[in-house]
Amino acid sequence: MTQFSSLEQMTNMSQSFQRFMDSQSMSPLIQYSGMIGKEVSYPVYDQETGLLNRTETDVVLSVNQNGGETYLELQSGKKISVEEITKVSEVNDKSNSVVEEG
Asked: How far is CA 96 from the centre of its chain?
């Protein structure tokens, strides 16, 4: 009886671990889809100096993948890599495209 109980516990642990592994291997497209409708902030660099010029904030309209990279399409029409995001928040009542001086 003890062996059966141990075998059942090991089977349950194996199934739980498999579910965990499946959830970790979700497509980035699925992982980032929760950002749709959220407000994101990202840095904008000066093209000449490469230094931080400002931080912009915009609302995510969609998520897409291209060449193994995941991108966010923003309300302003811009497309940015998810790697560029510095902040994610709920949309507030003020203007959707806010520029913060850096």
From this structure: 19
Buried b (16+ CB within 10 A) or exposed e, 53-85: bebbbbbbeebeeeeeebbbbbeeeeebebeeb
| 39-78 per-position pLDDT tens digit | 999 999 999 998 999 999 999 999 998 888 999 999 999 9
Q: 88 Cβ partners below 8 Å, 6+ apart? A: 35, 38, 39, 40, 41
Q: Which of 65, 69, 72 is nearest to 88 (CA)?
A: 72
**Please, where are the H alpha helices in the chain?**
2-24, 28-32
End-to-end CA distance of the chain: 67
The reported pTM is 0.64
